[in-house]
């Protein structure tokens, strides 16, 4: 993401957010750029029945919630830490000045946003059309490709709960589907960890 030295030169603040801290809520006006130094964050929506639908998980060196800054619209989802996290925050005006002064950083950010859009398009299709096993494989293959591990045994870093939240399925459905995928040799489980 954006180099730490550039963030600090642009007046970014490094803030500590304890685990389970809500960073912002859906429908709030965006005022800051966020980039994780260490930790993890989930962006999610609450359904009418109170269930979370996770839009994405972000970890060390990831930024999140940039589109509302560019589009000047309210946050479409809430963000919450899932571990103790240190996160750089940068005022919107300083963020836009940084990108104007450093077009190479703007291009990198644009490429990342495009990859996220492709992921969302794939997942929305999968969630609405295909059976659980297919949805899970698509999700896991996406992360395997994103992590550049196509030709190796890939350890899935998501819990069954996180897979459930990302696909909109119940945890029990995810567990059954993973066992079915293991029986059909489409993935492997070693010491409770999923490998692809």
From TrEMBL:
GO cellular component: cytosol
Stretches assigned to the Cyclic nucleotide-binding domain: 17-116
SUPFAM superfamilies tied to this protein: cAMP-binding domain-like (SSF51206), Winged helix' DNA-binding domain (SSF46785)
Domain HTH crp-type, first and last residues per copy: 130-196
Highest taxon of the lineage: Bacteria
Keywords associated with the record: DNA-binding, Kinase, Transcription, Transcription regulation, Transferase
Keyword Transcription regulation: yes
InterPro entries per UniProt: cNMP-bd_dom, cNMP-bd_dom_sf, Env_Response_Regulators, HTH_CRP, RmlC-like_jellyroll, WH_DNA-bd_sf
Pfam families cross-referenced by the UniProt entry: cNMP_binding, HTH_Crp_2
Keyword flag GTP-binding: no
Listed GO MF terms: DNA binding; DNA-binding transcription factor activity; kinase activity
Name of the protein in question: cAMP-binding domain of CRP or a regulatory subunit of cAMP-dependent protein kinases
